[in-house]
Write a structure and sequence with these properties.
Elements lengths: L6 E2 L8 E7 L2 E4 L14 E10 L6 E11 L4 E5 L6 H8 L7 E6 L3 E6 L10 H11 L4 H14 L15 H15 L3 E5 L7 H16 L1 E2 L10 E2 L1 E5 L3 H7 L2 E6 L2 E7 H5 L3 H5 L1 H7 L5
Parallel strand pairs: 6-12, 6-13, 8-9, 9-12
Antiparallel strand pairs: 1-2, 2-8, 3-7, 4-5, 4-7, 10-11, 13-14
């Protein structure tokens, strides 16, 4: 199988990719290569996808026979207990993992950015950290710095542009990571519990930025011929209040399987969840750890 990445820049191995990537039209099928894009209405399409870690004899099943599609502009929350497969699914969507079996397709030339719980920042100024992703993508350094300054202004950190990024607070570091993603104007933003390690004030600030990001439409700044598309948000969270505020759709995972997939109003309102998805209902009510 050959997969051509048009752009890929990781700041640390399997750690920080919020400087962004531009994905190819990507499709993989273990039992036969299928290079088609997902359906026109989807940007991600998974059919019977499993991800296993370790040797076949002692494999850990992180995802098991997962089938779902994600459409442009959706705000999808992934919830479930620790180890249910949320992070694995996000890394699969971002191209950091390949499926062990099944078929996974993503839309062609899809601009993506991913934020982690603990952003990895270089021992450089805040400005250079934000400009890095644009420069790696081929933007001249002067233009990259100007775009980085605008992104820092959007997250309220322009006055800290010259400070060493490693000297910032946790909340400020996450806002720098958000600015780094914002500068790239991705069509998809993936977040792996980005506010889990923050204090309540910083959590509210970052959540407000995520909300603003999700409401925007974007096309990469250096691709003037590109059509603007709604930003698609896929995030993992243990904060159910945050899920209610940010998500339009909620997927509940358990042992690597999707046990519930509903619009947010149906997931948290009425009796549908309890009647059709009892395990998810137990989790939401705090009766299932």
């Amino acid at each position: 199988m050959t997969t051509k990445y048009l752009f890929r820049a990781d700041l640390a191995p399997a750690q920080s990719d919020d400087c962004g990537r531009l994905s190819p039209s990507f499709s993989t099928n273990i039992s036969g290569i299928n290079r088609s894009s997902p359906p026109a209405s989807s940007i991600f399409d998974l059919a019977g996808v499993s991800v296993h870690f370790g040797s076949p004899e002692r494999a850990v099943r992180a995802l098991s026979q997962l089938s779902l599609s994600i459409s442009p502009g959706e705000r999808v929350a992934l919830i479930g207990a620790n180890g249910c497969g949320k992070s694995t699914l996000l890394r699969l969507l971002h191209g950091l993992l390949l499926p062990t079996s099944g078929q996974f397709s993503s839309a062609p030339a899809l601009g993506q950015a991913m934020l982690f719980q603990k952003p990895h920042l270089m021992r450089w100024s805040v400005l250079r950290n934000v400009a890095l992703g644009l420069w790696l993508r081929g933007t001249p350094w002067g233009q990259a710095k100007q775009a980085a300054l605008l992104a820092l202004k959007r997250v309220g950190l322009s006055e800290l542009a010259g400070r060493n990024a490693r000297q910032l607070s946790g909340g400020q570091m996450q806002r720098v990571a958000m600015a780094r993603a914002w500068a790239l104007q991705p069509q998809v933003l993936l977040l792996d519990e980005p506010t889990a390690s923050l204090d309540p004030h910083a959590k509210r600030e970052v959540e407000a930025l995520i909300e603003e990001f999700a409401k925007s439409s974007s096309a990469p700044a250096d691709r003037m011929d590109a059509r603007e598309t709604p930003v698609t948000l896929v995030f993992a969270s243990h904060n159910l209040g945050q899920v209610k505020r940010l998500a339009s759709r909620v997927i509940y995972l358990e042992q690597g399987r999707v046990l519930a997939d509903l619009p947010v109003e149906d997931f948290f309102g009425g009796t549908l969840l309890a009647l059709r998805y009892p395990a998810a209902h137990l989790f939401v009510t705090g009766e299932l750890a």
